[in-house]
Amino acid sequence: MLGIETSCDETAAAVVRRGSDGGGEILSNVVRSQWEAHRAFGGVVPEIAARAHADCIDDIIQTALDDARLDFSDIDAIAATAGPGLIGGLLVGLTVAKAISHAREIPFVAINHLEAHALTVGLTDALQPPYLLVLVSGGHTQTVLVEDVGSYHRLGITIDDALGEAFDKTAKLLDLGFPGGPAVERAAKTGDAARFSLPRPLVGRAEPHFSFAGLKSAVRRQAQQLAPLTPADVADLCASFEAAVSDSVADRCRRAYGLALEQARTAKQPLPIVLAGGVAANARLKARLSATAADLCTALHVPPVALCGDNGAMVAWAGAEHFSRGTTSRLDAPARARWPLDADAKPILGTGKAGPKA
After folding, report:
1. Which domains does the chain have, with CATH numbers?
2. Among 102, 244, 254, 264, which residue's CB has the most CB atoms within a 10 Å radius?
């Protein structure tokens, strides 16, 4: 299975093999980042991202095939991210995948980017549903009961900022550069996480939703009070921010776990916990959720760092999972800026970001 990913600022292609036993193998995985092109703007510029995808997508696909020592005649099917994401970038990858499918008469599978993150542990850990997914990325933060491939039940979602967005804005506030997540984590390594008493949003609340806007504002207030900031101040703010994030996510995960056990259609207990998405690369968050999973008498599964961010292997694997079940897509499948895993999820009152399109 060839997979193509162009939903944001990584142009990626990969080839994976799915065995008859359901096991997976990565034959190639090529990712070209656009960080330098966007760094001056402090975030991803959609028009720049789309042009960059178009400039290199052909080379990325050919490199993925070369690395796998295969050509198109060896590919059983091709998968591409169709959403959610930046519409210009999605159109680049989706159009190229459809063109290859048509020209080479290779079946095509349109993939939900969130689902690709959700299913990656099947490729890396041979973990099959059901499990509780904690998805934390630049654009999405939610907990989802993964019942089966194609069957998802959203339990909680952010009512304001996504976690990755909060990291990026904190990095920008502290002049740490872009991308924010790795920059904050690097600075936090030498910091004192106990120096600042930052809020743990929604901790203790019954519903398993997330909120990070107040935490981000608390960091800003502390920074303004201390200005001009010393390197030690920045390190301590980052460490305190990471600690608050980890505590908040762990509490929300614990609450979602209880709901997942109640709603799971199988009696599988303990229910595994999966941490996925770009922010899953954060070492402090992984350690905190690993301890939470242990307290719940279950295990935490996290893809390798290289597969936490956007990549083609996760798209290829999601495509392989669907293709093995006889599912393919029409060539008129649309690019979708918003595409929920759980289209039946009820909107959260008071926010325009957390309805069924989130």
Report:
1. 2-120+306-324 (3.30.420.40), 128-302 (3.30.420.40)
2. 244
3-state secondary structure the chain: CEEEECCCCEEEEEEEEECCCCCEEEEEEEEEECHHHHHCCCCCCHHHHHHHHHHHHHHHHHHHHHHHCCCHHHCCCEEEEEECCCHHHHHHHHHHHHHHHHHHCCCEEEEEHHHHHHHHHHHHCCCCCCEEEEEECCCCEEEEEEEECCEEEEEEEECCCCHHHHHHHHHHHCCCCCCHHHHHHHHHCCCCCCCCCCCCCCCCCCCCCECCHHHHHHHHHHHHHHCCCCHHHHHHHHHHHHHHHHHHHHHHHHHHHHHHHHHCCCCCCCCCEEEECHHHHCHHHHHHHHHHHHHCCCCEECCCHHHCCCCHHHHHHHHHHHHHCCCCCCCCCCCCCCCCCCCCCCCCCCCCCCCCCC
What is the reported pLDDT for 352?
43
Q: Across all residues in the chain, what is the average pLDDT?
A: 93
What pLDDT sits at residue 268? Answer: 62
Residues of the chain with pLDDT under 50: 350-358
Please tell me the pTM assigned to this model. 0.93
